[in-house]
Amino acid sequence: VAATTDYEAVPGIAPADEQRVGTLVMKFGGTSVGNPDRLQAVARRIVAVKEEGGRVVAVLSAMGDTTDELVELAYRISARPKPRAMDMLISVGERISCALGEMAIEDLGHEAISLTGSQAGIVTDTTHTKAKIVEVRAQRIHEALDEGKIVLVAGFQGVSTGQEITTLGRGGSDTTAVALAAALGAESCQIFTDVEGVYTADPRVVPEALKLPVVTYEEMLEMSASGAKVMALRSVEFARNHGVRLHVRSTFTDSEGTWIQKEDEQLLEKAIISGVTHDTSEAKLTLIGVPDRPGVAARVFRALADAGVNIDMIVQNVSSEGLTDISFTLPKSDLAVAEPILETGCNDVGAAGWSQDSDIAKVSLIGAGMRSHPGVAADMFEALAEAGINIEIISTSSIRISCVVRAADVDRAVQVVHDKFRLFAEERAGA
Ligand code: ADP
Ligand code: ASP
Ligand code: MG
Predict the structure, then answer these.
(1) Nearest in space to 382 (alpha carbons), one of 342, 419, 347, 338
(2) Which residues contact 413 (CB under 8 A, 6 or more apart)?
(3) CB atoms within 10 A of CB 277
(4) Cβ burial, residue 165 (10 Å; 0-12/13-18/19+)
(5) Residue 23 CB partners (closer than 8 Å, separation 6+)
(6) What angle do CA 228, 114, 230 make, to 5 degrees?
(7) How many Å lie between the centroid of ligand 1 and the Cα of residue 319?
(8) pLDDT mean for each 10 residues of the chain (431 residues)
(9) Which residues touch 207 (CB under 8 Å, ≥6 apart)?
(10) Ligand 2 and 67: CB distance under 6 A
(11) What pLDDT is attached to residue 296?
């Protein structure tokens, strides 16, 4: 799905020329703070940077699988938890990490202050569970930094313009970190995670995937939008809009990771392919036997949009005898909202019925170079065909080709497509 391109100015964020040299934002993900030992290691890493003279703001995620466990807990209590209560619950994980982080840093002989998203001045809109940051009021952070303290901020959360606690969507600690880096005019935003950087495919699925030294915002946007959860989509949009350079790197080693930044105009050799991504979080809905006349698609998709359902890929078949089928994909988490709308929509437009299929996955090929290289799509389809994998839906953007396949085939699909384009990946990695 294409990332938004509209640039929204966020109050509180300094223009790029007001950069404060020496301010560093470091974000640590769930695995990085997964147990007390790891949290202490994170504290040592933060303190080491501070001792070099830096002004350090660290954004922490919830420990390990805490957020998943809290979500699960909610559904054991209620089938339809209210979004406001959900945010009260799931924002807790990050607060635990920060409080413990403060203790660990104090034990190392440094002053630290842990802040909730609200205390840190992360102001959002009122959309619970997927709120957008609308302003950063960083005064309190500046004061603490001026006093020589290390600032720890609970990621993934904020306070809405209506004074409610909100969360920023899964993976949202990345967004907190980037927003703070922009607001503080930080030199860069370091994202510490459980892999060494951004790879040509999820290294858990393709062990021989290669680490990319540099990825442009545009490529990373497409990768995140099509399932590479190493960076949350919103955070990359934010980084691009505010020119924040990101360094994705391992929490366990000191090695150089992947820089996400503006396209380098000097670079003559552009990589054709930057990577293969996959996404198993979507489902497919099909409207069957739809009368082929103007206004039908408009009616159904308007109703879905009004309910806040995020539609991704859409296909309409060629009609036969005045009837057609329309299939589309959407997040599985939106099914509960979409299904009743489809039921009503079906009656409204005189369709024969609808069906639901959750056993799908999407595999995508991303690369800025495909704009000027014909044949990339054909190569991808061939790779899938040779592996006997059926393509159910295809969609493209100028730098992405996505195919829906059976969920059971997805790992193999990623592997065969990655194999087919491996050469380009090696070129890109300078190997
Ligand atoms: P964190 O908790 O640090 O935020 P995440 O689990 O959100 O970490 O993201 C890191 C994970 O993203 C990796 O463990 C990896 O499995 C997955 N991933 C998916 N695609 C990629 C990719 N192209 N490059 C690197 N990691 C990827
Ligand atoms: N803890 C939140 C999540 O699991 C936010 C994050 O880790 O970025 O989605
Ligand atoms: Mg993450």
Answers:
(1) 419
(2) 278, 361, 363, 384, 387, 389, 403, 405
(3) 27
(4) buried
(5) 54, 55, 56, 57, 145, 184, 185, 186, 187
(6) 5
(7) 42
(8) 51 56 92 98 97 95 98 95 97 98 98 98 96 97 97 98 97 98 94 97 95 94 96 97 96 95 71 92 95 88 92 88 93 92 90 95 94 90 98 93 98 96 57 40
(9) none
(10) yes
(11) 85
Q: Is the CB of 59 under 6 A from ligand 2?
A: no
158 lines ligand 2 (CB under 6 A): no
For residue 428, the CA-to-ligand 3 centroid distance in Å is 25
| Residue 105: C-alpha distances to residues 52, 114, 246 (Å) | 15, 10, 25
Residue 192: count other Cβ atoms within 10 Å of its Cβ. 24
CB of 155 within 6 A of ligand 2: the answer is yes
Is 366 in a helix, a strand, or coil? Answer: strand
pLDDT at residue 7, as a whole number: 54
pTM of the model: 0.91
Residue among 42, 63, 67, 122 whose CB has most ligand 2 atoms within 8 A, to mutate: 67
Q: Which two tokens stand for residue 298?
A: 């408009």
Picking from 31, 15, 69, 334, the residue whose alpha carbon sits closest to that of residue 183 is: 15
Q: Give the tokens for residue 5.
A: 């391109």
User: Given this model, what pLDDT does residue 73 score?
Assistant: 98
Q: Say yes or no: CB of residue 257 within 6 Å of ligand 1.
A: no
